[in-house]
What we know:
Blueprint: H1 2-12, H2 19-25, H3 45-59, H4 65-78, H5 86-94, H6 98-104, H7 113-116, H8 127-141, H9 145-162, H10 171-178, H11 196-209, H12 213-222, H13 227-238, H14 250-255, H15 263-277
Helix pairs in contact: 1-13, 3-4, 3-15, 4-6, 8-9, 9-10, 9-11, 9-13, 11-12, 11-13, 12-13
Amino acid sequence: MVYCAIGDSYGFSFEFASADFVETNNDLRYHQHPKFGVRPGVYSDDTQMQMALAEVIASGREWTPRIIAASFVDVFKRDPREGYARRFYNLLQQVKNGDELLATIVPDSKRNGAAMRAPVVGLFSDIHEVIGRSEVQARITHDTKIGVDSAIAAALIMHFFAYDLGPKANLPGFLNKFVPGYGWETDWSGPVAVHGIVTVRAALTAIMRHDTLSDVLRSCVAFTGDVDSVAAVAVAAASGYHKFKKDLPEQLWEGCERSQYGLVYLLDLDRRVRSVTIDEGPLMQARDSCR
């Protein structure tokens, strides 16, 4: 959750900004967005929605659409913030609880909302559980093949690294096996659209090209477009791999928001989620400390 938030909050400074702004300012410091009034270092819906899933996991509650939808509504209403798609933002403002959300939403989206919140699901030790839980949470808002497959792929990238399932070079083949048909071995290039598969492909490309978290993060932003979602997925997943150098600069840690649900809360949530999901073995050792 912490690495998701840092990737998201850094990327949020550049979301759909011009290529010139990105090229000039992609220096691993938080910047004021040229159009949005959000304070630098504040995370967006990418982190908040992943937080909603993490809280369900940490609580041990049943993994059902009703409980997950309730968590989506609860975490938004206690701390409303920008970054959501306008239609979904308005819906979250209008509904009173998860039941109303399920009754009202039209879950036909192919956008990246289900994927951006999925990495935390990849921490479960059983791959079939990862796939099943990813599908359940995705169908609440993105009940389309693109929506579901992108969520599964995002969770599986995290799972591959967290459980050290092989060298990084094997990751595209791993995704081709479980989420076929998207050419995961082909690099993404150009601006990133608000599309589930495009977002995950861009995140995968950044991961495959680099071996340090700082380079992964800068690479995500350099694509331009919906880069906070790309960074949230890529940095969260890469943080689980012991061969990635965890070298994010101090200014990103110090500048990350310290609100009631900011950095300290996310650190604690990370610990609670790992206590529920992680199958202790050779993969999860002291390297899971945040820095």
